[in-house]
Every structure is written in structure tokens, then in C-alpha cells.
Specification:
Strand order of the largest sheet: 5-6-7-9-8
Shape: globular
Number of helices: 0
Radius of gyration: 15 Å
Distance between the termini: 26 Å
Helix content: under 10%
Order of helices and strands: EEEEEEEEE
Number of domains: 2
Number of strands: 9
Structural class: mainly beta
Strand content: 35-45%
């Protein structure tokens, strides 16, 4: 699915979706949305919606809340996930995730916001 920056609607807007960009000139993939391609500088990369599938690259179990809003969630897992589309993102995930686990994104409330939450993929 391709869309313009004006059509951006993903988890940062409270919508259950993860979006990324692909450069129509060089094919580079970027997760943080910009008005240009970070690889070649071409304007207006194409906005796409990710499948939510990926592999855990790193995981860190948080045992001490950083803020009063996150205290109710302790312990919680922060993961880096390599999406099948070719970008890496930080999100929350099941506490038992390990490096190399295949995962699928869902969305859950965390400290008053909707966030991506990764669970082990079903075989």
C-alpha cells in the first residue's frame, strides 16, 4: 500500500499500523519518516504500511520504571525488531522474547499511548 506523507496514519497517531518509507529512485528503506531519502537525497519517498512481521535483534527487560506512568507496566520488555521489509524499529514485546525469535506486531496501550507490541509468531 503506497500513500503520501499527508496520508500518514500509524501508531504514532493512535492507529494500529506501522509505516515506513521506500525511495522510488534508489529503493532504500527508512523507518523514520522524512521528506527525502537518507541514502540518495531524492525527494518524497513513498510511504508504505508494514506487515508487522520481523525477527528480534535485541531485547532488554526493564525492571525499574523510568517514570510514574510506566511503573504499572514493570517488568516490561523493550525490543529491537528487524522488520521483513528491511528496517529496524524499537518497540515493546513479550517478556520471554529472545534474539532470533520470529515475531508479529499487535498494539497495546502503554503509559497512556498506543504502542507496537511484538509476540512470538504462530508456527
Amino acid at each position: 500500500m503506497s500513500m503520501s506523507m499527508a496520508d500518514k496514519r500509524d501508531w504514532t497517531d493512535g492507529v494500529e499500523a506501522i509505516q515506513y518509507q521506500e525511495c522510488p529512485r534508489c529503493g532504500a528503506i527508512q523507518y523514520f519518516q522524512r521528506k527525502f531519502c537518507c541514502a540518495c537525497g531524492a525527494p518524497d519517498p513513498t510511504l508504505k504500511t508494514a506487515s508487522g512481521e520481523g525477527v528480534v535483534y535485541a531485547t532488554s527487560l526493564v525492571m525499574r520504571a523510568a517514570t510514574p506512568e510506566t511503573r504499572a507496566h514493570v517488568p516490561y520488555n523493550v525490543v529491537l525488531v528487524d522488520a521483513v521489509e528491511g528496517f529496524r524499529m524499537m518497540a515493546h514485546g513479550d517478556n520471554d522474547l529472545a534474539i532470533g525469535d520470529k515475531v508479529t506486531a499487535t498494539f497495546r496501550p502503554f503509559a497512556g499511548r498506543l504502542v507496537p507490541y511484538f509476540e512470538k509468531s504462530k508456527p
